[in-house]
Every structure is written in structure tokens, then in C-alpha cells.
Design a protein that fits this description.
By secondary structure, the chain is mainly α. It contains four helices and no strands. The protein has one domain.
């Protein structure tokens, strides 16, 4: 059986999880009938993707802000950027 590129480039890591996170991982793994390791990999991959999407959304918003000429739009986009950076 051929080894995939992904499998060939795996790196082993050891992490310590907070108790509540570990319980949640156990719960997900039981419910989905997957190993804890597989669940952790999926959650990490989803988190990385979400971060990339958030970063992309931020830069798109910043571009709209820079290109805006209407004062109301500038103010609205500036407020959105502020919430993006500092939270609600």
C-alpha cells in the first residue's frame, strides 16, 4: 500500500490539554467513533482554516476602508475594523 504525502510528513507532538478541553475531545471522539488523535487533528485543521478565513476577511475589509470615499461608509468600515481588532 502506498504511503500518502500527508502520512509521510507527519510529525509527532505531545500536548497537555486543559481538563475541559480533554473531556470535549473524548466526547467528540466517542460520538463520531474516531480516535482522540484524529479528532485533535481535525479540530486543529479547522482552527487553522478559520484563522486564515478571518485574516482574509480582515484584509478585504481594510481594502474596502482604504478605497471608501463616502464619509458614512468610511466611518462604518472604520467601526467594523475596530470591532475586528478589539472585539465587540
Amino acid at each position: 500500500m502506498a504511503i500518502t504525502k500527508r502520512a509521510a510528513k507527519q510529525v509527532r507532538r505531545s500536548v497537555t490539554l486543559p481538563r475541559e478541553v480533554a473531556k470535549e475531545v473524548d466526547s467528540i471522539s466517542r460520538r463520531r467513533r474516531l480516535s482522540d488523535n484524529r479528532v485533535l487533528v481535525e479540530l486543529i485543521e479547522e482552527g487553522i482554516q478559520a484563522r486564515k478565513e478571518k485574516e482574509k476577511a480582515f484584509f478585504e475589509l481594510a481594502k474596502r476602508f482604504r478605497e471608501a470615499s463616502d464619509a458614512r461608509e468610511v466611518e462604518q468600515l472604520g467601526d467594523e475594523l475596530g470591532r475586528f481588532v478589539f472585539g465587540e
